[in-house]
Amino acid sequence: MTFFKNSLRILICTMIMSATLGLHAQKSYPLEGRWDLEMDFMGRTAPSWLEIRHSGNATLIGRFVFAFGSARPIAEVKTYGDNKFTFSIPNQWEPKGSDMIFHGELTDGKLKGTLIYTDGSVLNWTGVKAPKLAYTENPKWDKPLNIFNGKDLTGWHVDGEKNQWVVKDGILTSPESGSNLITDEKFEDFKLHVEFRYPKGSNSGIYLRGRYELQIEDDKGLDPMDIYIGGVYGFLEPNENAAKDAGEWQTYDITLIGRRVTVTLNGKTVITDATIPGITGGALDSMEGEPGPFMIQGDHGPIEYRSFVVTPRKK
Fold first, then answer.
1. Which of these, 269, 253, 261, lies nearest to 235 by C-alpha position?
2. What's the Rg (C-alpha) of the chain?
3. Which 8-state DSSP code applies to residue 13?
4. In this predicted structure, what is the pLDDT of residue 6?
5. Contact 54, 60 (CB under 8 A)
6. Where in the chain is CATH 2.60.120.560?
């Protein structure tokens, strides 16, 4: 009899725990989700990104992407009052100083607030919920477009005063640090084929829709990371490092549909149908629901391209 009573107690306790866990899993927090931000920074609107989610019963954690750098973990998002919150972020590439202090408020489905920068200055920002980007299975593709003609910069423009980009012998090159190079045309879903080469120790990248950086860096032999070649910077880690030696021609083949990306580096698929959570540091804007251009990073190290072919999805 004692055995059956103990078994009954265990069963009841298990049911109560399951019900309790179920309630916790179903509880939602208004601040939870992914947010596309715009921040007043250095006299311009700087795109940023914020993710807030719960961990355990009541703790809120998250990730934050500033105008530059990779996604930074938020150890705890503290809430107070009605839909108000705060958290701190240690500096990454910012000037030395204090941690950055983030204050925000949710009003009518939108966020707004201030960021105390490392030098003590106060930046204003606003945010909206990041859109759900539709995924099309088995899409039909349009004709491939050679958006680099092998002769000049027709169809491209720079984002700064210094245009260091040149075309010589059919190769597009940035021999030194300067401006990023951006396509005039914007794209939604696409396939992209790129052939590129970099010298030893160089660092560059390609921004898909001008928002999601696919890293290019001299990383051969290193363990794969989301900040190394083959990764979507700070978010998606490649399953292997398929880089060739510096000085060799290499290839990227990328498919982006909605938020879902597949990346093939030098014939090896290193990311398969993975979801890009949000914009990466250095993005042109945070308007994720709109088509965007390609942007080639030119403000880091030297880089060369001999092919840049885009195949848009048929609408």
1. 261
2. 23
3. H
4. 52
5. yes
6. 145-312
186 to each of 7, 154, 267, 292, 293, how far by Cα in Å? 65, 15, 26, 4, 4
Q: Identify the H or E element spanning 217.
A: strand 212-217
**Local structure of 212: helix, strand or coil:** strand
Q: Where in the chain is the domain with CATH 2.40.128.120?
A: 33-129
Residues across the chain: 315
How many C-beta neighbours within 10 Å does residue 138 have? 4
- Predicted TM-score (pTM) of this structure: 0.90
What is the pLDDT, as a whole number, of residue 81? 80
Count how many Cα atoms sit within 13 Å of the Cα of residue 247 in the half-sphere of its side chain: 2
DSSP string, 138-169: S--B---EE-S-SSS-TTEEESSS----EEET
Chain centroid to Cα 160, Å, comes to 22
Mean pLDDT of 56-60: 84
Residues 223, 228, 233, 237, CA torsion sign? negative
Among left, alpha and beta (phi > 0; psi -120 to 50; other), residue 201 is: left
**Adjacent-strand bridge partners of 208:** 212
| Superfamily (CATH) of domain 145-312 | Exo-inulinase; domain 1 (2.60.120.560)
Provide the percentage of residues in the chain whose pLDDT is more than 90. 82
- Condensed to tens digits (0 to 9), the pLDDT of residues 19-48 reads 444 444 546 778 999 999 999 998 999 999
Q: What is the mean pLDDT of the chain?
A: 91
According to CATH, what is the number of the domain 33-129? 2.40.128.120
Task: Identify the band that residue 8 occupies on the pLDDT scale cut at 50, 70 and 90.
Answer: very low
Residue 102 has pLDDT above 70, yes or no: yes
